[in-house]
Amino acid sequence: MPEEKTFDELSYLRSEVRRLRQNLNLLTPALNVVLKRRGFLIYKKEPGDDLLIPAGKFLEDYYKTLHRYSFRLFLRDVIKQQNFFTCEKVTRFATAGVTEEYIQYLEEIGLIKKHKEGFALTRHIKSFGETLEWFVAEVFKREFGAEAIWGVKFKRPNVGGDYDVLARIYGSVLLYAEVKSSPPKQIYDNEIAAFLDRVSDLAPEVSLFFMDTELRMKDKIVPMFEEALRKRHMRAEVARIEKELFRIRNKIFIINSKDSIVRNLETVMNWCLRRSVGE
After folding, report:
1. Pairing of strands 206-211, 252-256
2. What are phi and psi for residue 134, nearest 5 degrees?
3. Neighbours of 212 (CB within 10 A)
4. Is 249 helix (H, G, I), strand (E, B) or coil?
5. What are the domain boundaries of the chain?
6. Which residues of the chain form beta strands (DSSP E)?
7. Cβ contact 181:128 at 8 Å
């Protein structure tokens, strides 16, 4: 059937693009070299203390399941009530039937266990943040053939904090992503300022401020960036690319997870590829 042929050709082309990106990565400087050229030496990375992932044999399917926005929201609720929860307590963002499936799935892969009349996590987790950073780094590696690391710390005298995700794309192009699992109402001015400070210090070709939400970015986050730019006397506007994807010039991008994380990252990367990232 024509539809089936089109799908096969599209899948083939995508796999070829991934293969070519991976081959390009082998012929270009490694991520640590790209960072060293900027005077950055990795002090710590990928801590894993609060990483909620299963054993290796379940990892591939878990990665695929994390693509579902409802599953990620469900995990946040589970972490908040990790010592004891029932299906009813974590049924906010999906139907009861889907939530029961998610609970059964987590039990099967060993992330939760039966506890009293409900369930509990098998280990203490402070927040969903590290798991989301891991997932975004995996997206860059698996979907775009990039070299990526997460939870990175540098010994820098002026600008501190973690660099949530760093990736090497298109050969030696450095991408920095700030990854937020909190909703827009829990983001404050100092977080935007800290992100812009790290962008200024690291000087990546591409920077992302990513929020794992399907809420509008124009309501709060975009105005916060506009105000931060004014305070820094930066003559740059926050322009819409499409839907809830925005850019500051062609170097800083503000995105959320509406529709698909992969699709939104792909849109940004295609935008950068078709325009000069050094503009």
Report:
1. parallel
2. -60, -45
3. 21
4. coil
5. 2-48+128-274, 56-121
6. 42-44, 112-115, 118-121, 147-154, 163-169, 173-180, 206-211, 238-242, 245-248, 252-256
7. yes
- Angle 17-259-212 from CA coordinates, rounded to 5°: 100
Q: With 60 as the cut, is the pLDDT of residue 3 above it?
A: no
Given a cut of 90, whether residue 12 has pLDDT beyond it is no
46 vs 203: CA distance, rounded Å? 21
DSSP states of 152-218:
EEE--SS--S-EEEEEEETTTEEEEEEEE-S-GGG--HHHHHHHHHHHHHH--SEEEEEE---S-ST
Amino acid at 213: T
Closest CA to 184 of 257, 126, 236, 133: 257
20-33 mean pLDDT: 73
**Strand pairing class (245-248; 112-115):** unpaired
User: Which DSSP category does 84 fall into?
Assistant: S
Q: State how far the Cα of 150 lies from the Cα of 130, in Å rounded to an integer.
A: 8
- pTM for the whole thing? 0.89
- Cβ-based burial of 77 (10 A; exposed 0-12, middle 13-18, buried ≥19): middle
**d(C-alpha 60, C-alpha 259), whole Å:** 22
22 pLDDT more than 80 = no
Instruction: State mean pLDDT over 113-117.
Output: 94
What CA–CA distance (Å, rounded) separates 192 from 60? 33
Q: Do the beta carbons of residue 22 and residue 49 sit within 8 Å? A: no
The 10 Å Cβ neighbour count of residue 34 is 20
**Measuring CA to CA, how many Å separate 236 from each of 199, 225, 229, 233, 250?**
15, 10, 7, 9, 10
Closest CA to 207 of 195, 222, 215: 195
